Amino acid sequence: MSVLVDTSVWSMALRIKASENIFLQRLIKTNQVRIIGAIRQELLSGIKDVIQFKRLRKNLEAFPDIPISSFQYVKAAELYNTCRSKGIQASHIDFLIAAVAIEQGLGLYTYDKDFENIARVVPLELYQP
């Protein structure tokens, strides 16, 4: 199964020794990692050091973006409305990530608790290593 890897997992991986993130390494080695432009943007935003920015941008090039269509943006809005009606809130980017994962049939690997709440209401499959 391919897995959409959320910003929270990438961020944690960047802060710890590579050898400590066995699950992400395994997904990378087996070519199961997927990414979208919004996750790439979140990862690169706020990096003040130009050299670090360029290095991370180059490393992320190994993972091509899943193309996002208007349908997926509309699906994200539907997910937002459905969850909001149940009292569940998250960012618009989180709902876009969830919509892409659902529509592409991907598991979502995340440490962000907002996705656990979303998954209680919509058919979002969370990847459990």
Question: Which features does this protein show?
Answer:
129 residues, Rossmann fold, 56% helix, 3-stranded parallel sheet, mainly alpha
Q: Can you lay out the helices and strands and say which pair or pack?
A:
Layout: E1 3-5, H1 7-15, H2 22-29, E2 33-34, H3 37-44, H4 50-60, H5 70-85, H6 92-104, E3 107-109, H7 113-119
Parallel strand pairs: 1-2, 1-3
Helix pairs in contact: 5-6
Short description:
The protein is mainly alpha-helical and 129 residues long.
Low-confidence stretches: none
As a whole number of angstroms, the C-alpha radius of gyration is 15 Å
What is the overall shape?
globular
Oligomer: single chain
The percentage of residues in β strands lies in: 5-15%
**Helicity, as a percent range:** 55-70%
What is the first-to-last residue Cα distance? 12 Å
Q: How many beta-strand elements?
A: 3
The name of the CATH topology is Rossmann fold
Helix/sheet category: mainly alpha
CATH class: Alpha Beta
Mean pLDDT over the residues: 93
String of helices and strands: EHHEHHHHEH
Strand arrangement, major sheet: 2-1-3
Say which CATH homologous superfamily is assigned. Answer: 5'-nuclease
Number of H- or I-type helical stretches:
7
Number of domains: 1
The CATH architecture designation is 3-Layer(aba) Sandwich
Q: What composes the largest sheet?
A: 3 strands, parallel
